[in-house]
Amino acid sequence: MLVRTTHLTEPLTITAAPLTRDAFAPFGDVIANPRPESRPSNTAPDAIARGELPCGAVSANQGTAIQYRAIASMGNLYDSAPSGKTGSPRMTMFVCGARALVSRDGGGGGGGGEEEVADGVQIKVLERHPFTSQTFIPLTADGTKRYLVVVAPTTPVPTGEEEENLPAPRDDAGLPGRGLPDVSRLVAFVATGEQAVTYAAGTWHAPMIALGPPDSTVDFVVVQFANDVPVEDCQEVALEDGGKGDGPASRIWVRVLEGDWRALAKL
């Protein structure tokens, strides 16, 4: 549900970094095999019991599996929603078509005879789910598949009555709070198909952006809670150019550089 249109006054360009567990920690969890080299065949159950593996690992399935019990968390805060309507667990699928990278000016060439490079995407919307976490799980273990994760902190103090009236848990429990996204501190990450991502409750993020060749997709199973009250399930902020037209367009631009993302995107 659209709750605000924000008119940007300055252009912002950021470069996406590889998605890692530590870098993303302020916004949620990165879910990936924390020790891909450790397998049931080469890791004895007693070694697992001694705590030699991370994330609460235990030996499972009669020693034929390793279970990481503390890989991520889920949040259901609908008991504090103003409507009083309980949230229920939902599992859906998003088939995300790859977004074509374009140049910042939206065309094929820049001024002064310099050619603009098609290396990014514009961020036009940020959204949050104030009472639930949301986990995107790619249906592939292909490290060459990529998608863009864009998040922003919440402004610490609401700037108007409209924000005060937005349904959201109070921030006295370490939650982001009721404020709008702080677009000046927006960050972006490139994830691979070997990684899933959980947005913590209340985290401002862009809708999922799949990367890849034209007509390709990244298919996700999405796990969250919902109560079907639109303003409690999802709040959106549209980001529009508020410039005066005498300079660069005031837009948020995320550059996606080429690189070995499979090697760089590690826990």
Automatic annotation (TrEMBL):
Region (Disordered): 156-176
Gene3D superfamilies for this protein: Ureidoglycolate hydrolase
GO molecular function, one term: ureidoglycolate hydrolase activity
Catalytic activity: (S)-ureidoglycolate = urea + glyoxylate
Keywords: Lyase, Purine metabolism
GO biological process: allantoin catabolic process; purine nucleobase metabolic process
Annotated signal sequence range: none
InterPro entries: RmlC_Cupin_sf (IPR011051), UAH_cupin (IPR047233), Ureidogly_lyase (IPR007247), Ureidoglycolate_lyase_dom_sf (IPR024060)
Keyword Lyase: yes
Assembly and binders: Homodimer.
Protein name: Ureidoglycolate hydrolase
Species this chain originates from: Xylaria flabelliformis
